[in-house]
Amino acid sequence: MAEKKKEAKAKKDAAEKVLTVCDATQQMIDLTRKEGIETIFDRAQTMKPCPIGAEGSCCKNCAMGPCRVPPSKKEGEPQKVGLCGATAETIAARNFARMAAAGSAAHSDHGRGVAEVFLMVAKGEIPGYGIKDPQKLVQVAMDFDIDVENLSTQEIAIKLGELCVAEFGKQEGELTFTKRAPLKRQELWRKHNMIPRGIDREIVELMHRTHMGVDQDYKNLTTQAARAALGDGWGGAMIATELQDIMFGTPVPIKGNINLGVLKDDEVNIIVHGHEPLLSEMVVVACQDPEMLELAKKKGAKGITLAGMCCTANEILMRHGIPIAGNFLQQEMAIATGALDALVVDVQCIMQSVKESAENYHTKVITTSPKAKMTGAEHIQFEEHDPVTTAKQIVTAAIENFPNRNKKKVTIPKQKQDMVIGFSHETINYLLGGTFRASYRPLNDNIIGGRIRGIAGVVGCNNPRGVHDEDHLTLIKELIKNDVIVLTTGCSAMACGKAGLLLPESAKQYCGSGLADICETVGIPPVLHMGACVDNSRILVAATAVVKEGGLGDDICDLPAAGAAPGWMSEKAIAIGHYFVASGVYVLFGTTFPTTGSKKFTDYLFNGLEEEWGGKWDFEPDPMKMAQKMIAHIDKKRAALGIDKARERVLMDMEMRRELDAV
After folding, report:
1. Of 29, 45, 75, 562, which residue is 20 to 30 A from 430 by alpha carbon distance?
2. What confidence tens digit (pLDDT) does each residue in 377-398 have?
């Protein structure tokens, strides 16, 4: 009885809380509650996180436990240890390392799938795909030391595909893309024995080290976690991004729109959700097929609307302008519109609750990956050798489901926001310098001159432990107000899109005068959408390009730059954060941090690492304070570079120019 009262109170309290700043999502929360349908927003209020597990102080790596070693409550009281004697820092480091291993495995396995398909495409074994960016093919091939001069496009692609696939199983040497990093960074990695030998090898070794009775030095575990994470950032994830660009086209600025209002009440609505664009690229083609459109009309629909969710959405948005229905916390909300005929999912960030939500409506949940099945869902397996047929099967299933829609249950929010996206490294290079003078020089000059204060990468998921989208938007608005240009990916990018921050005209409303002038001159938004979460490697490439352009230090750690994931929730975020820290970046996480149960280990991550690697972790749940910390770090780096004082802009006459020439 007491439990029921407690639950009822929690639900009442939740109803009074602000759970999202997205009006479309709020409308759907109100609707589902009225209909008695539970969503993640409700569960987040009634199920509290385990305080010991949240701090990384619980070890369940063997059957003697789980052992809980919370911090001592009294000064001078001895710290508890596990049955085997494992200390709090060892336990926290092992848990942190396992998160890094799982996150690295997720992104890198995505990259492996892309590399395998790329090789089959190169050999002509798969219909439907091709080489859409031959110029990038040649550039990436040269990174792998392929002699491209006397080879055909197909021959180059085959050699590149074989070498990319081999990166996963390499046992010795260094991953190829690590040589893209600044030379000083490569030297530091070698000094600390951090350069990954092979993508899979580092993940396997890290898992071995975290087994009971193996690695019991938290600093050593942190270094191996970095090797695995670097194998993701400068390996698996980077391979995924580069090969996807070659096959599907390197993104260029394109107009799109976002939010639940992109769904239509008189058309077949299909949402592709997950992270792998191999199938979704073919679903785009299938939805435009005259045969499919004719079938939709026969079933009473005026057409087919395809939309994306999570990072699959970012992939097809950047390359085709396909609209985004929403980010991570909106997946149940899309079903609640009553207008969704099929939710097509592959891997990562798919809530099991979507199947239960779909039981209240007519929506078909279709799984497509052999790695990610769901009890009760329909499974139409993606066949790499015949992707067009798989895509048509899926679209047909959605069309056949359209007549089952209950029109009385259809409630599509009106919210829909325009945005400009598709800012790859190559695009930024071109926009700054043009076709023949493509260069990061204008960006560097404006950072040196003070019109742009610095660069921030703001990425990551939504977390229902905070207000949906709010932390991302609060942080980013404060950064651009202070002339910090923002690079964004994943669900954070979608939050910005819904809020209008991905439009060039938003610069005048939200930015400081310096950044606003630059955005107006170049014609870009103050927040640049760089793709899916796997595309965080684009930010690494961009940061390296800024270093190589000159004037801002010799390494990534010298740049007036910082990174943040204010609403993270996934193990992938730990892997991403750790490869940025290991690359020399100051990285802040919000919401929670998984090591705070060990003061010693947390202090090492937040302070000790900077002395060794030049980058470090930090935790700040308040987005305004997070912005202040990032800006303070940027200002510290500006001072170290000697560019912290404002410089007067001088219009030079001919006499002044002659004096310069004489010097």
Report:
1. 562
2. 999 999 888 899 999 999 999 9
